[in-house]
Every structure is written in C-alpha cells, then in structure tokens.
Amino acid sequence: MRVAVARYRIEPRPSGFGFDAFARKQADWLGEAQKLGARLAVLPEYLSLELAAAFPPAIHADLQTSLEAIQALHEPWMALFSRLASELDMHIVAGSFLLANGRGGYRNRSYRFAPDGRHGWQDKLQLTCFEKKAGQGGAGVIEPGDALGVYEIDGVRTGTAVCYDCEFPLPVRAQREAGMQLLVVPSCTDTDAGATRVRVGCLARALENRCFVAQAVTAGEAPWSPALDANTGEAAVYAPMDAGLPDDGVLAMTRGEERWAVAELDFAALEASRERAQVANDRDWPGQLAPAIARAKFDP
Predict the structure, then answer these.
(1) Which region, left, alpha or beta, applies to residue 95 given φ > 0 means left and ψ of -120 to 50 means alpha?
(2) Where do the TM regions start and end (predicted)?
(3) Residue 243 lies in domain
(4) What percent helix, strand, coil does the chain show, rounded to 5?
(5) What is the rounded CA–CA span in Å between residue 96 and residue 45?
(6) Tell me: the pLDDT tens digits for 114-126?
(7) What is the pTM assigned to this prediction?
C-alpha cells in the first residue's frame, strides 16, 4: 500500500476563503496525492477549523463561536470527502472535524472515507490542556471520546490515534491486539516541543507494536485562528527500527516546502521481520505484566 501524509498549510488570511475555496483546495491537495500513487491519503487534525475562515472576524477569532459556526458545514464536508474518495479511487482520512454532541460540547472526530462510499470515524480519546480549557472563560467544551476501533483499508487492519492519543501506549496496544498493522495519526502542534512529543510517540508505538505509523501535520501561521495560529512539525511515515527496516524508523518525511511524504508499505516484509528480529517488543510485551514487576516496591 502506498500512503501519503500531508504537511498541510493552513490559509494564513481568511479574506475571501469560503467553503468553495476549501473544497477546491482539498481537490488540489488530494489530486496531487493520487498522482503520487497514494492509495491512502492522510490530512491533519483540526482541518475543519480552517473552515472558520469563511466567517467574519468576530466568529473566527473566537474558538467557541468558530465551533458553533462550522456545524452548518458538516454535511457539505461529509459530501465533499465522500465524493473525492470516489472520484480519486482513494481512501482518505480527512483530519478531524470538531462535531457538536447535541449537549453543548464537541467531539474531535477523525473521519475516514472509502472509494465505495463507506465512511467511519475515531474520536480523540485524550484531551490536551488546551482542549480541556477550550471555550469561553476557560470552560471546556471539547469532550473526549469513549470508544476505540480498528477498521480495514484494502484488507489492512488500520487504527487511528488523533495527535495526543499516539503518546499513550495502552490504547494503541489494544488496537494492535485487534490486528492493527497501520496506525494513522492526524496531528496539529503549535510548538517544537509538541511536535517532538508526537513524533516520539509515533516512533515508540511503531517500535512497541511492530506496525507502520503515518502522521499528518498542519503547517504555517494563521494568526486569525486561536487554535491554528502556529503550526509545527513534519509529516512522516514510521516503521519499527529492526532488521530490514530503517535504522532511524523513518520511511518518509517532508522536507522544505514538500506537501506530502509518501511511502510504500510492505506488510509482508513487516510480518517477515519478526523471524529475524533483533528485538521483539511486540512479542515480549506480556513480560512487563508479570505480577512481580507490574508494581515496583521501594527498597529503603
């Protein structure tokens, strides 16, 4: 499977940017991924917040009013990515949409679209400090998800970990135990430290689980948005650091102004690497659960 992950540049100025312009931008970006041979294209977390640029400054300058405003564009969003997946004959993970839950809150929901019209989602499970405080007066309006899943893309079992979620080993391990071979990570970070945390999380999950990890990121500056004001990091595809695989775990990474990092994922080679493994973190995982070492004792 050839996978493309985006280093997606957020619009720096909202003037004149509406849903039609957003739709043309998605067609341009995803059309480029298709020309690069991608069967799966991954866009970044918070992608839907770029749509707030379609509204006046009084709305797009405030996160909560932005979230309220973009709900009217949820149905066109779904139709857009469903159409592009079909027309391009490509699977698309469309970053995430902050979706109203009907109780005054929002789920950070990562949608996936298949060429045959099917779609599904994974909600972000762990919230960052920013998300916990998001809302007027610091009252949290973003809520965590409460379910974890694995799905198939062309027979490859795939899971989604939305940004911060990739920094937690146990949910990803649960996905691996459900057969996951590819972890998709739509992300958005606004500091170098944040970008490093997510990158290290991706590398660690690839190592622990002997799986591929595909991370998309936001890029550029958008001072008009309280959530997308600054964006850092590189899009990358990672593998376990073992025999027959890259020593640094990096299969592909964007450089300079590149918009996509593209990698050919050989799942047969990944499975075969177990037989000549230098280490076997995935197989040795149960060892850390032994009763004698699951809890450390202080020895004065």
Answers:
(1) left
(2) none
(3) 2-267
(4) 40, 25, 35
(5) 5
(6) 999 999 999 999 9
(7) 0.96
